[in-house]
Amino acid sequence: MAAWVLHVDLDQFIAAVEVLRDPALAGKPVVVGGRGDPAERAVVATASYEAREFGVHSGIPLRLAAKRCPDAIFLPHDPPAYDAASAEVYAVLRSLPGVVVEALGWDEAFLGVTTDDPVAFARMVQAEVLEHTRLSCSVGVGDNKLRAKLATGFAKPAGVYTLTRDNWVEVMGDRPTTALWGIGVKTGRKLTELGFTTVAELARADPEVLATRLGPRMGPWYRSLALGAGSAEVTATPWQAKSRSRETTFQSDLSDGAAIETEVAALARRVAADVVEEGRPAARVAVKVRFVPFFTHTRSITLPSPTDDAAALTEAALAVLAKFDLDRPVRLLGVRAEF
Fold first, then answer.
1. Model confidence over 32-41: pLDDT tens digits?
2. What is the pLDDT of residue 33?
3. Which residue of the set 18, 102, 108, 201 is catalytic?
4. Cα angle 20-135-118, degrees, rounded to a multiple of 5
5. What's the predicted TM-score (pTM) here?
6. Cα separation of 13 and 15, whole Å?
7. Is-catalytic flag, 108?
8. Antiparallel, parallel or unpaired: β 30-32 and 73-75
9. In this predicted model, what pLDDT tens digit does every residue of 234-259 receive, in sequence order?
10. Helix (H, G, I), strand (E, B) or coil at 205
11. Interior/surface letters 95-113, b for 16+ CB within 10 angstroms, e for the rest
12. Distance (Å, rounded) from C-alpha 227 to C-alpha 233?
Protein backbone atom coordinates (compact mmCIF):
# COMPACT_ATOMS: atom_id res chain seq x y z
CA MET A 1 0.00 0.00 0.00
CA ALA A 2 1.35 3.43 -0.95
CA ALA A 3 0.16 7.02 -0.83
CA TRP A 4 -0.98 8.50 -4.13
CA VAL A 5 -2.39 11.79 -5.36
CA LEU A 6 -5.30 11.69 -7.78
CA HIS A 7 -6.47 14.74 -9.69
CA VAL A 8 -10.14 14.54 -10.67
CA ASP A 9 -11.25 16.88 -13.45
CA LEU A 10 -14.83 16.88 -14.73
CA ASP A 11 -15.00 16.67 -18.52
CA GLN A 12 -16.36 19.82 -20.25
CA PHE A 13 -18.15 20.46 -16.96
CA ILE A 14 -20.40 23.42 -17.79
CA ALA A 15 -21.35 22.04 -21.19
CA ALA A 16 -21.97 18.61 -19.62
CA VAL A 17 -24.35 20.15 -17.07
CA GLU A 18 -26.26 21.82 -19.88
CA VAL A 19 -26.54 18.48 -21.71
CA LEU A 20 -27.97 16.90 -18.55
CA ARG A 21 -30.60 19.64 -18.46
CA ASP A 22 -31.40 19.12 -22.15
CA PRO A 23 -30.31 15.70 -23.46
CA ALA A 24 -31.10 16.85 -27.02
CA LEU A 25 -27.83 18.81 -26.89
CA ALA A 26 -25.75 15.63 -26.67
CA GLY A 27 -23.21 15.37 -29.48
CA LYS A 28 -23.84 18.92 -30.69
CA PRO A 29 -21.54 21.96 -30.59
CA VAL A 30 -22.59 23.83 -27.44
CA VAL A 31 -21.18 27.20 -26.42
CA VAL A 32 -21.97 28.76 -23.04
CA GLY A 33 -21.34 32.41 -22.26
CA GLY A 34 -22.93 35.73 -21.43
CA ARG A 35 -26.65 35.72 -22.02
CA GLY A 36 -26.31 33.17 -24.78
CA ASP A 37 -26.64 35.71 -27.57
CA PRO A 38 -23.67 35.70 -29.97
CA ALA A 39 -24.78 39.09 -31.31
CA GLU A 40 -23.97 40.62 -27.92
CA ARG A 41 -20.57 41.34 -26.48
CA ALA A 42 -19.56 38.53 -24.17
CA VAL A 43 -16.95 35.79 -24.03
CA VAL A 44 -17.16 32.01 -24.06
CA ALA A 45 -17.29 30.44 -20.59
CA THR A 46 -16.95 26.94 -21.98
CA ALA A 47 -17.49 24.96 -25.15
CA SER A 48 -18.35 21.33 -25.72
CA TYR A 49 -15.77 19.10 -27.35
CA GLU A 50 -17.77 19.27 -30.58
CA ALA A 51 -17.46 23.07 -30.60
CA ARG A 52 -13.78 22.95 -29.69
CA GLU A 53 -13.08 21.10 -32.92
CA PHE A 54 -13.92 24.38 -34.69
CA GLY A 55 -11.45 26.39 -32.60
CA VAL A 56 -13.97 27.60 -30.04
CA HIS A 57 -12.54 27.81 -26.54
CA SER A 58 -12.96 29.67 -23.27
CA GLY A 59 -12.23 33.37 -23.34
CA ILE A 60 -12.83 34.17 -27.00
CA PRO A 61 -15.69 36.54 -27.97
CA LEU A 62 -19.05 34.92 -28.64
CA ARG A 63 -19.14 36.64 -32.02
CA LEU A 64 -15.88 34.97 -32.99
CA ALA A 65 -17.23 31.65 -31.75
CA ALA A 66 -20.27 32.09 -34.00
CA LYS A 67 -18.02 32.76 -37.00
CA ARG A 68 -15.88 29.72 -36.31
CA CYS A 69 -18.84 27.44 -35.63
CA PRO A 70 -22.01 28.80 -37.28
CA ASP A 71 -24.04 25.76 -36.23
CA ALA A 72 -23.18 26.09 -32.53
CA ILE A 73 -25.94 26.23 -29.96
CA PHE A 74 -25.42 29.22 -27.67
CA LEU A 75 -26.64 29.11 -24.07
CA PRO A 76 -26.53 31.64 -21.22
CA HIS A 77 -24.07 31.20 -18.36
CA ASP A 78 -25.96 29.86 -15.32
CA PRO A 79 -23.65 29.71 -12.25
CA PRO A 80 -26.31 28.48 -9.75
CA ALA A 81 -26.86 25.37 -11.87
CA TYR A 82 -23.14 24.66 -11.97
CA ASP A 83 -22.84 25.26 -8.22
CA ALA A 84 -25.51 22.62 -7.60
CA ALA A 85 -23.90 20.09 -9.93
CA SER A 86 -20.48 20.69 -8.39
CA ALA A 87 -21.88 20.14 -4.89
CA GLU A 88 -23.25 16.77 -5.98
CA VAL A 89 -19.87 15.69 -7.30
CA TYR A 90 -18.08 16.75 -4.12
CA ALA A 91 -20.63 14.84 -2.04
CA VAL A 92 -19.72 11.70 -3.98
CA LEU A 93 -15.97 12.26 -3.61
CA ARG A 94 -16.24 12.89 0.12
CA SER A 95 -18.31 9.73 0.58
CA LEU A 96 -15.48 7.52 -0.68
CA PRO A 97 -13.84 5.61 2.19
CA GLY A 98 -10.34 6.62 3.24
CA VAL A 99 -10.13 9.52 0.79
CA VAL A 100 -8.95 13.06 1.58
CA VAL A 101 -10.60 15.58 -0.74
CA GLU A 102 -8.98 18.93 -1.48
CA ALA A 103 -11.29 21.16 -3.52
CA LEU A 104 -9.80 23.28 -6.29
CA GLY A 105 -12.96 24.82 -7.67
CA TRP A 106 -16.19 23.90 -9.44
CA ASP A 107 -14.86 21.06 -11.51
CA GLU A 108 -11.61 19.71 -10.09
CA ALA A 109 -10.16 18.31 -6.89
CA PHE A 110 -7.15 16.48 -5.53
CA LEU A 111 -7.71 13.17 -3.76
CA GLY A 112 -5.27 11.70 -1.29
CA VAL A 113 -5.53 7.91 -1.30
CA THR A 114 -3.59 4.93 0.01
CA THR A 115 -3.83 1.92 -2.29
CA ASP A 116 -1.77 -0.73 -4.03
CA ASP A 117 -3.58 -0.09 -7.34
CA PRO A 118 -4.13 3.63 -7.97
CA VAL A 119 -5.38 3.08 -11.52
CA ALA A 120 -8.12 0.74 -10.35
CA PHE A 121 -8.97 3.22 -7.61
CA ALA A 122 -9.19 6.02 -10.19
CA ARG A 123 -11.58 3.98 -12.31
CA MET A 124 -13.71 3.36 -9.24
CA VAL A 125 -13.86 7.11 -8.65
CA GLN A 126 -14.98 7.64 -12.24
CA ALA A 127 -17.67 5.00 -11.94
CA GLU A 128 -19.03 6.45 -8.69
CA VAL A 129 -19.17 10.00 -10.04
CA LEU A 130 -20.85 8.84 -13.25
CA GLU A 131 -23.39 6.68 -11.45
CA HIS A 132 -24.46 9.33 -8.95
CA THR A 133 -24.19 12.51 -11.03
CA ARG A 134 -24.21 11.31 -14.67
CA LEU A 135 -21.08 13.41 -15.22
CA SER A 136 -17.85 11.95 -16.57
CA CYS A 137 -14.42 12.86 -15.28
CA SER A 138 -10.79 12.31 -16.14
CA VAL A 139 -8.32 11.27 -13.46
CA GLY A 140 -4.61 11.89 -13.28
CA VAL A 141 -2.56 9.64 -11.01
CA GLY A 142 0.69 10.97 -9.60
CA ASP A 143 3.21 10.74 -6.79
CA ASN A 144 2.65 14.46 -6.11
CA LYS A 145 0.13 17.16 -6.96
CA LEU A 146 2.05 18.58 -9.91
CA ARG A 147 2.34 15.25 -11.67
CA ALA A 148 -1.26 14.27 -10.92
CA LYS A 149 -2.52 17.58 -12.30
CA LEU A 150 -0.50 17.27 -15.50
CA ALA A 151 -1.47 13.62 -15.89
CA THR A 152 -5.12 14.60 -16.19
CA GLY A 153 -4.40 16.46 -19.41
CA PHE A 154 -3.25 13.19 -20.96
CA ALA A 155 -6.31 11.37 -19.60
CA LYS A 156 -8.98 13.52 -21.22
CA PRO A 157 -11.65 12.77 -21.99
CA ALA A 158 -12.91 10.24 -19.44
CA GLY A 159 -9.60 8.43 -19.11
CA VAL A 160 -6.94 7.66 -16.51
CA TYR A 161 -3.25 8.47 -16.89
CA THR A 162 -0.29 7.98 -14.57
CA LEU A 163 2.64 10.39 -14.35
CA THR A 164 5.37 9.75 -11.78
CA ARG A 165 9.10 10.13 -11.32
CA ASP A 166 9.55 6.95 -13.38
CA ASN A 167 8.09 8.30 -16.63
CA TRP A 168 8.45 12.06 -16.08
CA VAL A 169 11.38 12.63 -18.46
CA GLU A 170 9.94 10.34 -21.12
CA VAL A 171 6.55 12.09 -21.10
CA MET A 172 7.45 15.70 -20.34
CA GLY A 173 11.10 16.18 -21.35
CA ASP A 174 10.56 17.31 -24.95
CA ARG A 175 7.43 19.36 -24.27
CA PRO A 176 7.53 23.17 -24.16
CA THR A 177 7.95 24.81 -20.78
CA THR A 178 4.39 26.13 -21.03
CA ALA A 179 3.18 22.54 -20.66
CA LEU A 180 4.06 22.83 -16.98
CA TRP A 181 1.38 23.79 -14.48
CA GLY A 182 2.41 27.24 -13.33
CA ILE A 183 4.19 28.50 -16.46
CA GLY A 184 2.11 30.65 -18.76
CA VAL A 185 2.74 32.16 -22.16
CA LYS A 186 4.56 35.26 -20.87
CA THR A 187 6.91 33.29 -18.63
CA GLY A 188 7.45 30.74 -21.39
CA ARG A 189 8.51 33.59 -23.66
CA LYS A 190 11.04 34.79 -21.08
CA LEU A 191 12.42 31.28 -20.67
CA THR A 192 12.77 30.93 -24.44
CA GLU A 193 14.75 34.17 -24.55
CA LEU A 194 17.11 32.59 -22.01
CA GLY A 195 17.47 29.52 -24.21
CA PHE A 196 15.13 27.18 -22.33
CA THR A 197 12.43 25.98 -24.72
CA THR A 198 11.69 22.50 -23.37
CA VAL A 199 11.04 21.03 -19.95
CA ALA A 200 14.30 19.05 -20.11
CA GLU A 201 16.32 22.17 -20.93
CA LEU A 202 14.75 24.04 -18.03
CA ALA A 203 15.45 21.12 -15.70
CA ARG A 204 19.15 21.37 -16.57
CA ALA A 205 19.29 25.16 -16.12
CA ASP A 206 21.61 26.80 -13.63
CA PRO A 207 19.45 27.95 -10.69
CA GLU A 208 21.63 31.03 -10.22
CA VAL A 209 21.05 32.12 -13.82
CA LEU A 210 17.30 31.73 -13.38
CA ALA A 211 17.38 33.59 -10.07
CA THR A 212 19.29 36.49 -11.61
CA ARG A 213 17.02 36.82 -14.64
CA LEU A 214 13.63 35.81 -13.23
CA GLY A 215 13.88 36.58 -9.53
CA PRO A 216 15.46 34.83 -6.53
CA ARG A 217 12.26 32.98 -5.65
CA MET A 218 10.50 32.41 -8.97
CA GLY A 219 13.55 31.52 -11.06
CA PRO A 220 14.57 28.40 -9.08
CA TRP A 221 10.90 27.50 -8.63
CA TYR A 222 10.43 27.23 -12.40
CA ARG A 223 13.32 24.78 -12.49
CA SER A 224 11.71 22.73 -9.73
CA LEU A 225 8.58 22.49 -11.86
CA ALA A 226 10.65 21.16 -14.74
CA LEU A 227 12.05 18.50 -12.42
CA GLY A 228 8.48 17.46 -11.56
CA ALA A 229 8.93 18.40 -7.91
CA GLY A 230 5.99 19.38 -5.75
CA SER A 231 3.98 18.70 -2.65
CA ALA A 232 2.23 15.39 -2.19
CA GLU A 233 0.18 16.58 0.79
CA VAL A 234 -3.56 16.64 0.19
CA THR A 235 -5.53 18.51 2.83
CA ALA A 236 -9.25 18.55 3.51
CA THR A 237 -9.21 22.26 4.31
CA PRO A 238 -12.31 23.74 2.65
CA TRP A 239 -11.61 25.59 -0.57
CA GLN A 240 -11.78 29.36 -0.23
CA ALA A 241 -11.94 31.85 -3.03
CA LYS A 242 -8.80 33.95 -3.43
CA SER A 243 -10.83 36.89 -4.66
CA ARG A 244 -14.27 38.18 -5.55
CA SER A 245 -14.83 40.08 -8.75
CA ARG A 246 -17.46 41.71 -10.91
CA GLU A 247 -17.23 42.84 -14.50
CA THR A 248 -19.42 44.29 -17.22
CA THR A 249 -19.14 44.07 -20.98
CA PHE A 250 -20.70 47.09 -22.66
CA GLN A 251 -22.72 46.64 -25.83
CA SER A 252 -21.63 50.16 -26.83
CA ASP A 253 -18.08 51.37 -26.22
CA LEU A 254 -17.45 53.83 -23.41
CA SER A 255 -15.30 56.83 -24.23
CA ASP A 256 -16.30 59.37 -21.60
CA GLY A 257 -13.99 59.36 -18.57
CA ALA A 258 -16.74 60.30 -16.15
CA ALA A 259 -18.94 57.45 -17.38
CA ILE A 260 -16.06 55.00 -16.97
CA GLU A 261 -15.50 56.19 -13.40
CA THR A 262 -19.20 55.78 -12.63
CA GLU A 263 -19.17 52.20 -13.91
CA VAL A 264 -16.02 51.30 -11.95
CA ALA A 265 -17.52 52.77 -8.77
CA ALA A 266 -20.70 50.75 -9.27
CA LEU A 267 -18.71 47.55 -9.81
CA ALA A 268 -16.64 48.28 -6.71
CA ARG A 269 -19.75 48.62 -4.58
CA ARG A 270 -21.02 45.27 -5.85
CA VAL A 271 -17.66 43.68 -5.08
CA ALA A 272 -17.72 45.25 -1.61
CA ALA A 273 -21.06 43.55 -0.94
CA ASP A 274 -19.51 40.25 -2.05
CA VAL A 275 -16.58 40.82 0.30
CA VAL A 276 -18.95 41.41 3.22
CA GLU A 277 -20.82 38.23 2.32
CA GLU A 278 -17.54 36.31 2.18
CA GLY A 279 -16.74 37.44 5.71
CA ARG A 280 -13.09 38.19 4.95
CA PRO A 281 -11.52 41.61 4.36
CA ALA A 282 -9.82 42.42 1.08
CA ALA A 283 -6.10 43.19 0.95
CA ARG A 284 -5.76 44.25 -2.71
CA VAL A 285 -8.00 45.83 -5.33
CA ALA A 286 -7.54 45.33 -9.05
CA VAL A 287 -9.24 46.90 -12.05
CA LYS A 288 -9.46 45.30 -15.49
CA VAL A 289 -9.98 47.38 -18.61
CA ARG A 290 -10.58 45.86 -22.02
CA PHE A 291 -10.01 48.40 -24.76
CA VAL A 292 -11.32 48.23 -28.30
CA PRO A 293 -10.88 45.96 -30.15
CA PHE A 294 -9.80 43.39 -27.53
CA PHE A 295 -6.75 44.55 -25.59
CA THR A 296 -7.03 43.75 -21.89
CA HIS A 297 -4.94 45.35 -19.15
CA THR A 298 -5.07 44.95 -15.37
CA ARG A 299 -3.67 47.16 -12.63
CA SER A 300 -3.85 46.77 -8.85
CA ILE A 301 -2.85 48.28 -5.52
CA THR A 302 -2.35 46.93 -2.02
CA LEU A 303 -4.64 48.50 0.56
CA PRO A 304 -3.13 50.21 3.62
CA SER A 305 -4.93 47.58 5.70
CA PRO A 306 -7.45 44.83 4.86
CA THR A 307 -11.02 46.08 4.77
CA ASP A 308 -14.57 45.30 3.69
CA ASP A 309 -15.66 48.94 3.76
CA ALA A 310 -17.48 49.83 0.54
CA ALA A 311 -16.26 53.42 0.50
CA ALA A 312 -12.63 52.37 0.95
CA LEU A 313 -12.84 49.70 -1.75
CA THR A 314 -14.53 52.10 -4.15
CA GLU A 315 -11.91 54.75 -3.51
CA ALA A 316 -9.18 52.19 -4.12
CA ALA A 317 -10.77 51.02 -7.38
CA LEU A 318 -10.94 54.59 -8.65
CA ALA A 319 -7.30 55.10 -7.65
CA VAL A 320 -6.35 52.06 -9.71
CA LEU A 321 -8.41 53.30 -12.63
CA ALA A 322 -6.39 56.52 -12.56
CA LYS A 323 -3.32 54.44 -13.44
CA PHE A 324 -4.76 53.74 -16.91
CA ASP A 325 -4.34 55.93 -19.95
CA LEU A 326 -7.94 55.97 -21.20
CA ASP A 327 -7.06 57.09 -24.70
CA ARG A 328 -9.12 54.41 -26.44
CA PRO A 329 -12.77 53.34 -26.20
CA VAL A 330 -13.52 50.76 -23.50
CA ARG A 331 -15.62 47.64 -24.04
CA LEU A 332 -15.25 45.93 -20.64
CA LEU A 333 -14.57 46.96 -17.06
CA GLY A 334 -13.92 44.75 -14.06
CA VAL A 335 -13.12 45.17 -10.39
CA ARG A 336 -11.54 42.45 -8.24
CA ALA A 337 -10.97 42.34 -4.49
CA GLU A 338 -8.24 39.91 -3.40
CA PHE A 339 -8.27 38.38 0.08
1. 999 999 999 8
2. 93
3. 108
4. 175
5. 0.82
6. 6
7. yes
8. parallel
9. 999 777 778 999 999 998 999 999 99
10. coil
11. ebeebbbbbeebbbbbbbb
12. 18
